[in-house]
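Sanity check. The docking grid for zinc ion depends on where the pocket ends up, so I'm generating a full predicted complex first rather than guessing from homology. Inputs follow.
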Amino acid sequence: MLPRPEVRWRRGAVSPTAAVGMLSVMSLVLAACGSGLATGDTATDAATSTTGTTTTTGATPGSSTTTSTSAPEGSSTSGQSQNDEALGIGDDYFPDTGNPGYDVISYDLTLDVDDDLVSFEAVAKIALTTTESLDELRLDLDGHEVAKTTIDGTEVPNHRAGLDLVLTPKQPLPAKASVAVTVDYGGTPEPRGSEVLGGLGWLGTPGEGSYVVSEPDGASNWFPANDHPSDKATFGFEITVPEGVEAVANGTRTGETTKSGRTTWSWSVRDPMATYLATVAIGQYTFFEGTAPDGLPLLSAVADEVVKQEGKPAIDAVLGQLPQMLTVLSQRFGPYPFETYGIIVVGKPLGFALETQTRSIFGSDMWAEPIYQAHELAHQWYGDSVSLELWEDIWLNEGFATMGEWLWAEATGGSGGPPLSAGSSLAPPLDPGPDAMFDTSVYVRGGLTLKALRQEVGDTKFFTIMSTWAADHRLANANTDDFLQLVDEVGGSDAESLVSAWLSEPEPP
Ligand SMILES: [Zn+2]
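Predicted complex below; grid placement will be based on this.
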């Protein structure tokens, strides 16, 4: 995720004196890194993020030992059907999201999109494995009419409990069982609220089209999900739209068939993906295809409006940088983790960009800026392939992606980010609180944490740490303690203490 600087500015009330402070930090950072990127609401960061927790939780969400502060989660004995509240997976930042007791293996989503290009009828086929015995099975689903739910081919009753769609099997599902679930549903998705971004999930304009941006908890507005990054799964999409309309999603395009004035676009995602990284864009798009030097297929989709406005040569010039960017970042991070890459450019400004897996999504406002491209591409390693266990570790996504920007700048003759001294005006990036997840401190002080580490251990060890982190947790999940352990192993205990202090102490070393 990368909010545009002025979008970050809009958050919260800032006093005039704080604003002066922000301006001086801003010009310092601007002068240092030579881009409009690393700016923002440092004053609000300091005001809203005061704790600086020094420990991360050891519990793995979704495991049967999850300790949550919320109610009798995961218990298979209680009459939870009477409970009207959503259960969560055990993430304090978003207590309602995710669900206990199972791991999703795959989502296959078939969407039949109305002529308005916003509403749809859908069938979600979900393959999962139970991790404990379950007398009910919960999925996150916000809104929509649910027509029918089945478990292993048998229709089962369902009801709502807050964000949860609760399915009740005839008999309790045993632990470690492979279970096939279907949900027939549909309607017009209602954007989920977000202070930073305004609306999350499936966002549509009748007659124009729709697109999906869900970080952190928006996926449930368009499909029934175990909506937490700790439960990644493969995805397949079959999206039927009126003939002449394009539908692009993550992964590889596997089909395009037209029948009776309706076109079905098929996409498949080979590698596990967090629910918030699933995307679809529907409307008038032009595809741009290519190949990176190592043979990686590239496929981007740019809204026709943007193509008309900018002209194809300008778009080719921006997209033409992706192969070199892939090469540069692969040299530092290790092999690119996925089957394909590309970008989606929607026909309106979004105020941010998002690292939707294998195909990052941009608005018409940010797509042409190489540094933003580098940020979202770096996320493919850090955030998408190596995913969070809990949202409090968001710096593992944003600090690393910010380092990706600086490495790209460095490789193309620019400066590698602001000086370490810029960190002293920024709040600690670890555990910023749910309202400050996308604040500048997480990005810039997160990046500076890595920059300080690089300075401490030198390039060889630093890039060993970066690439080992990507390799050890490829297509999996990890937390800050895991990272500190790796830093200790490769860089020694002084390096580990330095990183800890940068992450948690009010004043960085
Ligand atoms: Zn980001």
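Relevant for the grid: The chain has three domains: 2-48+384-504, 70-283, 285-330+337-379.
Also worth noting: DSSP finds eleven helices and 24 strands in the chain.
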